[in-house]
Amino acid sequence: MTLNEVLAEMRRRGMPMGQETLSNGIADGTFPFGKVISTGKAGRRSFLILRRDFEKWAEDYLGDLE
């Protein structure tokens, strides 16, 4: 998943958040469903976010949509 896909899903489930907050939360371990896999020039980070891990976290912390 991309950061934008995660943000859209979090917002849909009632947890509005900005990209910087999500990025920093993944980097510091607050959001365990993603990992920083590289940091490029000027501090630009690349993330690995597995859909299954995000969906499990969302179910546990944000509840079911139905």
Structural class: alpha+beta
Q: Percent of residues in helical segments?
A: 40-55%
| Global Rg | 12 Å
Task: Give the assembly state of these chains.
Answer: single chain
Could you describe the largest sheet, including whether it forms a barrel? 2 strands, antiparallel
- Give the overall pLDDT as a whole number: 92
Q: How are the strands of the largest sheet arranged?
A: 1-2
- Portion in strands: 15-25%
How many beta-strand segments? Answer: 2
**SSE string, helix = H, strand = E?**
HHEEH
Task: Note the total helix count.
Answer: 3
Keywords, please?
globular, 66 residues, alpha+beta, single chain, 3 helices
Characterize the structure shown.
By secondary structure, the chain is an alpha+beta fold. 47% of the residues lie in helices and 17% in strands. It is built from 3 helices and 2 strands; from the N terminus they run ααββα. The chain has helices at 3-12, 19-27, 51-62, and strands at residues 34-39, 45-49. The longest helix has 12 residues, at 51-62. It is globular and about 40 Å long. The model has no long low-confidence stretch (mean pLDDT 92).
